[in-house]
Amino acid sequence: MPQTHPVTVTDPTAPSPAPPAELSLEERLTLIDAAMTVKLDEAAIAYEVNTAHLATTPLDLADVVTGPVDTAPALPKLYPTPVAALLQRAHHRLLTGGWCKDALVDEDGARCMLGAIRIEARGDRGLEASAAAVLLDAIRRTFGDDVPSVPSFNDAHGTSRTPLRMVDQAAGLADARGL
Questions:
Q1: Which of 30, 81, 112, 154 has the fewest CB atoms within 10 Å of its CB?
Q2: Domain end: 55, 71, 94, which one?
Q3: 99 has which bridge partners?
């Protein structure tokens, strides 16, 4: 018996369908979002099916979660002379502990140039005074004799860049002088 196919008859008097309207950007993005969500859901199900037979061992978080790594720069080999070594330690202290102005030590523990020298001198006032004198000399060599003191130079800067550079240069100067 021959197969018959249904025939669709359109009414010639019926109005033709309206042409599709142009979609706005928001409507197109919504349609694309819906299509992508369906594809991602299908991919997630396929992944679950394809990996269900794999044996897994529970992950120990101690193998993954570790404490913070110390990324502070290492203190380089110290100068052999005491004043130069003190200035080098003060420079390192400013690099790792932070620099501040208008105080020897701020509420976060950052120090000014003189505050770093004082903590690194560990109570030796003579060594502290010698280091401050060399630092002031290094500052005046670069910025002129009108700089009245180390604290005034420190507080005149908005960032740590120049004060740290001067402490580092003072360490080299002290070493060159054998101090």
A1: 30
A2: 55
A3: 111
